[in-house]
Amino acid sequence: MNSERFDAWAAGEIDAVESALDAWVPAESPAGLGEAMRYGVLDGGKRLRPLLALAAAQCVGGAHDAALRAACAVELIHAYSLVHDDLPCMDNDVLRRGKPTVHVKFGEAQAMLAGDAMQALAFEILTPEAGVEPALQARLCGLLARAAGHAGMAGGQAIDLASIGVSLDERQLRDMHHRKTGALLQASVLMGAACGDATPQQWAALSEYGDAIGLAFQVVDDILDVTQASATLGKTAGKDENNNKPTYVSVLGLDAAKRHACELRDTAQAALARSGLADASCLQILADRVVERDS
């Protein structure tokens, strides 16, 4: 698949995700809660996690309807985590996706509740009364819950907050970011794969791919935090350094961090090459885009 065909595929899938989120994230909720939820998740972001889920499902002949639910669910978990991470009690940020953060626009309490509601909605979307087999519902919920909980994203955020002003070595930094960022990106891939008929070999390869891409994404994030302006990033640049947080740049240095991102991309591509998948071109291009992005 060439770049133009990939861009057309990605645009169509993002449109499907946006339409589904628009339909599933309620505007009518008590006391303006729906407005805050929709502000936090609609019309913004790269939609990388949904694209990973949909691309993985496509690789293994997965049902698109189930994969679309997985894609929207993982994006809701990601969006809720951003809403909570931006709160004053966490990272205290005022800019996200080029606009004021949810707590700046709606207040801290409403932002907390909007995040809570988006987390719950993710699992509601995965468990429709019809259209997705109960066994698949359970598998998708399990994958997402483990990636988002104490062993994954929430645990990584706890380590992140506890590491302010603390020197971490590369192994400790890798563990933190594998949990905080990587687990949900890996789960995106595996949730898509769960919607089809992946062989054990393919499942293992996609798991390794997701793990490498998840960490590469964070390495690049750390690089961009010190090399790009806030206007380009759509969020506050230099935040980690200002908050005295350990990053791949502070631990490895900028040039070594860039090399490491490329090494992780190569690891992901190698996993796909030995996966036995007939066509993993969308995942291959997504791996390149993760490392080559500038925002």
Automatic annotation (TrEMBL):
Pfam families associated with the record: polyprenyl_synt
GO molecular function: metal ion binding; prenyltransferase activity
Cofactor: Mg(2+)
Superkingdom of the source species: Bacteria
One GO BP: terpenoid biosynthetic process
PROSITE patterns, per database record: POLYPRENYL_SYNTHASE_1, POLYPRENYL_SYNTHASE_2
GO cellular component: cytoplasm
Alphabetized UniProt keyword annotations: Isoprene biosynthesis, Magnesium, Metal-binding, Transferase
CDD domains the UniProt entry points to: Trans_IPPS_HT
Family: Belongs to the FPP/GGPP synthase family.
NCBIfam families: FPPsyn (NF045485)
Protein name: Polyprenyl synthetase family protein
